[in-house]
UniProtKB/TrEMBL annotation:
Annotated Basic residues bias: 80-91
UniProt feature, compositional bias: Basic and acidic residues: 19-34, 41-52, 60-79, 116-125
Region (Disordered): 1-125
Name of protein: Uncharacterized protein
Amino acid sequence: MESDNENRKLKSKLSSSTEYRRKQKVNDPEKYEKYLTYQKEQGKKNRSELKKRLNKSKPSKKDVETQEKIKLQNRIRQEKFRRKKQNKTKQKSTSTSSSALIKVSFKHVTCQEKVNQNEKGRTDK
């Protein structure tokens, strides 16, 4: 019963085009691959056209706003990726050892490198 309710909730959140693409991926993979290649080509074409319009001496405000929007979306995407990666490393460090190493950059030498240098000096004596 609960899984049916969850499926309904997920379906209600998805757009009809997303549902169609998912069905197409399962039912007709060749057509789905054609769709993906078409989307890829269109994306390349649109990016190159935008780049050409932005290289003009006076690009339109709309094109500049489009570029800023793309940059903002990329920043958000990168930030999500960094957070996700950071959470994974935190989980690994807490699960593998109780004493996790913390690296702090200071004048191009990390604290861990200083500790390693100190240990080398102790063993050399």
